[in-house]
Amino acid sequence: MANQVAGIILAAGKGTRMKSEIPKVLHEVCGVPMVELVARAMREAGVTKIVVVIGHGAEQVRARLGDAYEYAVQDPPQGTGDAARVGMTCLEDWEGPVIISSGDTPLMTGEALSALVTAQAKDNASAVVATVRLPDPFGYGRVLWDNGRFSGIIEEKDATPEQKKLDEVCVSVYAFDAARLRATLPKLQPNNAQGEYYLTDVPGIMSAEGDVVITELYDDFALFTGVNDRVQLAGASSVLRNRINERHMRNGVTMIDPTSVYIGLDVEIGNDTIVFPDSHLEGNTVIGSNCEIGPNIRIKDSHVGSGSLVHHSVVFDSKIADMVRIGPYATLRNGADIGPKVKLGNFVEIKNSRLDEKVSVAHLSYIGDATVGEYTNIGAGTITCNYDGFAKHRTQIGKGAFIGTNSTLIAPVSIGDAAIIAAGSVINRDVPSDAGAFGRSRQENKDGWATRWRGIRQGKEQ
Ligand code: UD1
Ligand code: CA
């Protein structure tokens, strides 16, 4: 399969410094696991087949990433060179370039990887080593040169004091020629400070055998930031967040204060939408154009149509049509399906319900497992009693109905078109269209009762 590019992601390490039950590479940056970010960069660079080397937490990684990848299990972990050898078992017949990267470099871009692939092809190199210059290279493998020719990489733990002063470092991202990599991996020896098989030794061995080995030096070292603990995780998230916000702003989205806007990598936003501070847009969320989003909202896996306004509210797994007004303090969840021009006000919760065009639920209501027809008005304090302690039941409300304030609708129940429910009603029987329903006790006024009552009370207290 010449010309196609394969990729190997090294992700078998434990990630001890994360202090986590979750494998390190599954920790998320802007809503996407680090290892998937690496894989996406690879795909953008034209990689068609990706092998993930797993070990620690193998099943968790496999379950999360699914079957778009091939997996090779490294057990026990014996170093990055051993991990690459294990990965290559899935690429036995592969010819052409193989990119290898560790799984904990979430800021890497497709563009950066493409440069490696291009360099490899141009010089027909056996290895291209991605490098950066660091003001503080501590901990990284240093690149060694011999009269202008690449001669190897020395790990921090194996380096002499002189070598430790070198500032060009290996960032654990490479493009190899598959055949040469396959031929060189068995030559690795674990004769180093850590007793491991080092992938970093491969380019040195190739160079010693007369192969073309080159480095690709990147100016922007942030591209290859490795994440080893939660501080670095937050740092990487902040860099990616800036990139995401910048992309949206360049696409015509206004952000009042981008430093307080948190948008997942896969979120889409239409132009002329304004995003106010403290807005969190997550997962597979799509926001239309001309919306006002925020302040103070969390919207996840939801769709918001154009011209809608959502503020101080929480929206999960829901669909909101155009020109809807939501908030403050509304909760939409589990398949709330909100039609155009609907109004949902403060302390309103909508769950698994369809509200047609121009429905108004302005205050203090719970609508769960219901359908509400167009133009219906739901008064303050209306509750659909959808749960009887054992099962959920549905409430059906027709169009143009008026549900009086503080109504209790005990499901399963159906209210016909244009029906009127008197305020304070408890409704447990179906209401026909155009009917009025009075589900409350009749009021009784007793003349002079208040005066007599006060007399009794005051008499007692004297
Ligand atoms: C490695 C490089 C070092 C480089 C640095 C950049 C080696 C020997 N050293 O060091 O030159 O400067 O990255 O960040 O390669 N992994 C496995 N199996 C193993 C060991 C590691 O899959 O047996 C994976 C880890 O999950 C990780 C990646 O390989 O994703 C890198 O391993 P790590 O231990 O972090 O290498 P460094 O010490 O950072
Ligand atoms: Ca590392």
Could you tell me the number of beta strands? Answer: 39
CATH-level-4 superfamily name of the largest domain: Spore Coat Polysaccharide Biosynthesis Protein SpsA, Chain A
Average pLDDT for all residues? 97
Uncertain stretches: none
Which structural category fits the helices and strands? alpha/beta
Strand-residue proportion:
25-35%
CATH architecture designation of the largest domain: Alpha-Beta Complex
Give the termini separation. 103 Å
CATH class of the largest domain: Alpha Beta
Number of helices: 9
Number of domains: 2
What ligands does this structure carry?
Answer: uridine-diphosphate-N-acetylglucosamine, calcium ion
Amount of helix: 10-25%
The dominant shape is elongated
Determine the CATH topology of the largest domain.
Answer: Spore Coat Polysaccharide Biosynthesis Protein SpsA, Chain A
Q: Nearest-angstrom radius of gyration?
A: 32 Å
Largest sheet: 16 strands, parallel
